[in-house]
Amino acid sequence: MRETEPNVPIETLSSGNLQLIVPNLHRRYSGVTATNRMVAPKLAKLFRAGWLGSDAPEGIARIGLADLAKCWRRRDAVIWHARRNNEMIAGVLLRSLGWPLKLVFTSAAQRHHSWITRWLIRRMDAIIATSEISKSFLRREADVVMHGVDTGTYAPPADRAAAFAEAGLPGRYAIGCFGRVRAQKGSDVFVDAMCRLLPRYPDFTAVMVGAITPEQTAFAEDLRKRIDAAGLQSRIVITGELDIEEVPRWYQRLTIYAFTSRNEGFGLTLIEAMSAGAALVASRAGAAELVVEDGVTGVLTPSGDVDALVCALEPLMRDPAAAAAMGERARARVLEKFSLDAEASRIAEVYRRLV
């Protein structure tokens, strides 16, 4: 992989000039998929890259199993960058059968790994951790590369009031909590806080954007019962899963974003909301303590604590101008520290050491 080689146009990419495979071997759209989709097109500008699997983004060639088969016993090595166990398993198996792969794994987990994950990690050529916390749970050396966000796509709107009005929601301001509706994401903490705060602040509507999976149906129904009991059916809106392209516009409608996860690998919604200029109140989960300057670009709270969330949100709801100012500082923080270009550049350094 020579830095001087120009990127090959997508339409001319072949197994013979492929340098990087980005596998996405997961049928359900997830946060891992979202982070992968954002950085992959940036990497494709630096290396001749192909995306293998579902949810391929614009800006990177899509390859299939036939293309992969043509790489067998090729002389030049190809980077295989896994982000899940099944992708590591596939990489280890393919290499054992003669594919010339250099294996890279990105770990975002902030917990002790299972035995199979540890076994797979030992077989990787390089490991990337998304934070120092994630790195601390690994039993080998790793490069820390924080996630970045597309600051062009996740950008403040020209007119936030007009963006809010476009949604047809009651009031003048929105407060959001995005991600799959489940206890791990603290969806119940958000709903309980809104049931207490919204009656005091009639200009606000709460918006929850994210999928409700079949196994979480009972949990979601319980949340709806709480919302109904509070008489807030029109002011706590659960959109369900949206098309990927719609999500940035929903961030632009927010004045405040609540990150309520109890447990998180990184928490991409943190930097997405900050990039869109929303004021942030975040639980101390994932990378929140590394991303947020407490009291400056956001407010940190204990995970799972409804009282603390209410206390942190209320001053911002009381003073939307102060929330807007915090959102501007949050956007500046992302531009300085969490751009996609910076993430891609650091990942590229890891690749170049291998090949």
Walk me through the structure.
- With 355 residues, the protein is an alpha/beta fold.
- It has helices at 31-44, 65-69, 85-96, 115-122, 132-136, 160-166, 187-197, 217-229, 247-252, 268-275, 288-291, 306-318, 320-337, 340-354; strands spanning 20-24, 49-53, 61-63, 78-82, 101-107, 126-129, 143-144, 173-178, 204-209, 236-240, 256-259, 279-283, 299-301.
- α1 crosses α14, α3 crosses α4 and α7 (187-197) crosses α12 (306-318).
- It folds into two domains: 10-148 and 339-354, Rossmann fold (3-Layer(aba) Sandwich); 160-337, Glycogen Phosphorylase B (Rossmann fold, 3-Layer(aba) Sandwich), CATH 3.40.50.2000.
- The strands form two sheets. A seven-stranded parallel beta sheet has the order 3-2-1-4-5-6-7, sandwiched between helices. Strands 10-9-8-11-12-13 form a six-stranded parallel beta sheet, with helices on both faces.
Write the layout of secondary structure elements.
Blueprint: E1 20-24, H1 31-44, E2 49-53, E3 61-63, H2 65-69, E4 78-82, H3 85-96, E5 101-107, H4 115-122, E6 126-129, H5 132-136, E7 143-144, H6 160-166, E8 173-178, H7 187-197, E9 204-209, H8 217-229, E10 236-240, H9 247-252, E11 256-259, H10 268-275, E12 279-283, H11 288-291, E13 299-301, H12 306-318, H13 320-337, H14 340-354
Parallel strand pairs: 1-2, 1-4, 2-3, 4-5, 5-6, 6-7, 8-9, 8-11, 9-10, 11-12, 12-13
